[in-house]
């Protein structure tokens, strides 16, 4: 981060209103619940949302069209951090600052950097050709249909058996 970086304003998870029509509603609602009820096991930092106009300006400046799901996510929270998993979806400003980054594993002209995961160099990308979410760990890629699927896999991989919670168990049974 640059010296001039100003962190986004945090959003209180107790007052967060997840849009009920958002694809990620069930996953984010579960994560908010777990962060509230199990703060020693689940940390969720949400940031102040951005407006449609701010997203439109981002798209105009970058000539990149976000998926409807990502638009909904940024209107709910301008990025977030989830631990366990160290999943961080960056703010739109951070995403824009990463546009010119060249990765050691090759050409990323068709990817949009969205954040990091696990803390060992694994990054989260939007494949601009397919609108799929990609995690890239130094060249090894995994593909997810969308952010919702990535969140679901993160819940299943990092929280199954780690937190005793009825809502989590119900989610995992249906997963």
Topology:
Blueprint: E1 10-11, H1 25-37, E2 43-47, H2 52-62, H3 68-76, E3 80-83, E4 87-89, H4 92-97, E5 111-117, E6 122-127, E7 133-137, E8 140-144, H5 147-159, H6 166-174
Antiparallel strand pairs: 1-2, 2-3, 3-4, 4-5, 5-6, 6-7, 7-8
Helix pairs in contact: 1-5
In the CATH hierarchy, the architecture of one domain is 3-Layer(aba) Sandwich
Order of helices and strands: EHEHHEEHEEEEHH
Mean pLDDT: 89
How large is the radius of gyration?
A: 16 Å
Percent in strands: 15-25%
Based on the structure, what is the oligomeric state of the protein chains?
A: single chain
How many strands, which pairing sense, and closed or not: the largest β-sheet?
A: 8 strands, antiparallel
Helix content: 25-40%
Note the total helix count: 6
Distance between the termini: 36 Å
Principal-axes shape call: globular
The overall strand count is 8
Stretches where pLDDT is under 50 for at least 5 consecutive residues are 1-5
CATH topology label of one domain: SMI1/KNR4-like
CATH structural class of one domain: Alpha Beta
Structural class of the secondary structure composition? Answer: alpha+beta
Largest beta sheet: strand ordering: 1-2-3-4-5-6-7-8
How does this structure look, described?
With 175 residues, the chain is an alpha+beta fold. It has a domain at 15-98 and 145-174: 3-Layer(aba) Sandwich (SMI1/KNR4-like), CATH 3.40.1580. Helices cover 35% and strands 21% of the residues. The protein has 6 helices and 8 strands; from the N terminus they run E-H-E-H-H-E-E-H-E-E-E-E-H-H. The protein has helices spanning 25-37, 52-62, 68-76, 92-97, 147-159, 166-174; strands at 10-11, 43-47, 80-83, 87-89, 111-117, 122-127, 133-137, 140-144. Strands 1-2-3-4-5-6-7-8 form an 8-stranded antiparallel sheet. The longest helix has 13 residues, at 25-37. It starts with 9 loop residues before the first strand and ends with a helix. 30% of the residues are buried. Mean pLDDT is 89; it is low at 1-5.
